[in-house]
Prior knowledge:
single chain; 86 residues; alpha+beta; two-stranded antiparallel ribbon; 2 helices; 2 strands; 28% helix
Amino acid sequence: MVEISYPADWRDIPPENWSKMRMTPEAYTAMRDERLRREAAAPAVGDPAPDFHLERLSPEGRRTGQMFRLSEGRGRPIALVFGSYT
């Protein structure tokens, strides 16, 4: 797993980096705080996946109206395919 570090204080970022980052110190601080909050809540490597539910798709990729909960597949291999259809 890649460890990402964010300077705690925006003053530790060299001035020439702000234009490259296209960000203000205030936006950086908000982004940093949000990312650290999300990382703290994320499961660790090796932890069980959190339970969730989603709609099943047909083999053609159409919506079926049938819902599936991850915990229903406990003990069986489950493949999840994530993609962007924009």
